[in-house]
Amino acid sequence: MAADLHTHSTFSDGTTTPTRNAELAAHAGLRALALTDHDTTEGWSEAAAGCAAHGLEFVPGLELSTEWDGRSVHLLGFWVDPGHPGLAAECARLRDERFERARRMVGRLVELGLPLSMEAVEARAGRAPIGRPHVAAAMVEAGVVPDLQAAFDRYLAEGRPAYVPKHALDPEQGAHLLIASGGVAVLAHPGPTFPAEHTGRWSREARNTLRLIDRLTAAGLAGLEADHSAHDPATALLWRRVAARRGLLVTGGSDFHGDAKDVKIGQRATDAEGLEALRQRARTGMRAQGGPAW
Ligand code: AMP
Ligand code: MN
Ligand code: MN
Ligand code: MN
pLDDT digit string (tens) for 41-91? Predict the structure, then answer.
């Protein structure tokens, strides 16, 4: 019986409520479910209630945005204390940063002649920190692109005309923050984050990436998300090897976003043994720091 350790909800850029995620996880036959919304823990109480209603274990998580070498690096944090002042401050800062960035993205789209308003984007985001999928959804609604993917491919993906980076902590600082707040840190979807790694060759980019993984390991990173819905079997194997060589754990998660992505809850998962190892790691970390009683 497995755990899906990477799902999003309407509390960030997913289209389903945490309640619905729990329902889908139960139907998929999972025994545990994590909610890992971008830079927020606000969906936890609803997710915990939904999981309890279905006899599922709830694994509290978030996907923290960090920045390295001009690209976005995502860290999954599990069992963090959401009241930790440093973590709460960084989540609040990211929320503001995301709002200003959305304004700039809308500004660029308007300059390109598209009829889009910040109000329409805010309406799509609701109370969630604004992400590019909200901008993409507002663009679909305005009829300027046929679907979300076209919005990314034409305008919003890195290198496209309306892309605006968001500034965030260095991944090492991000890992420190998640650990300091009593949690464990896992590097999310290394495949799409570091595409140079797909080749498995010792390119300069690949060496740089592995050096970053080494630094993150030294900073206390607990694992790599080798099993992710965007990883083909060869990519998953590659990252399993990277993890094994460093004594890192391996996790699996779907990165479910509801209708925003063609991915199902439980499509990738962490086995019971993997979840226990991660939990053990969280407990050990806490004993060392005398952290919160999660
Ligand atoms: P943001 O956090 O605002 O930079 O948005 C990142 C989110 O947009 C990711 O978590 C995905 O949900 C989605 N996303 C990123 N890149 C793409 C892409 N190329 N195609 C479709 N969705 C994407
Ligand atoms: Mn997302
Ligand atoms: Mn991500
Ligand atoms: Mn995600």
Answer: 999 999 999 999 999 999 999 999 999 988 899 999 999 999 999 999 999
Residue 54 is encoded by which pair of tokens? 């279905």
Residue whose structure tokens are 């606000």:
42
190 CA distance to ligand 3 middle (Å): 9
pTM above 0.85, yes or no: yes
In short, whether 38's Cβ falls inside 6 Å of ligand 1 is yes
- For residues 225 and 163, give the distance between their C-alpha atoms in angstroms, rounded to a whole number: 26
Say how far apart CA 78 and CA 265 lie, in whole Å.
18
Neighbours of ion ligand 4 (CB under 5 A): 63, 255
Ligand nearest the Cα of residue 135 is 1
pLDDT tens digit string along 109-139?
999 999 999 999 999 999 999 999 999 999 9
CB contact set of 61 (below 8 Å; sequence gap of 6+): 5, 6, 34, 35, 36, 76, 77, 78, 79, 80
- CA-nearest residue for atom 13, ligand 1, is 133
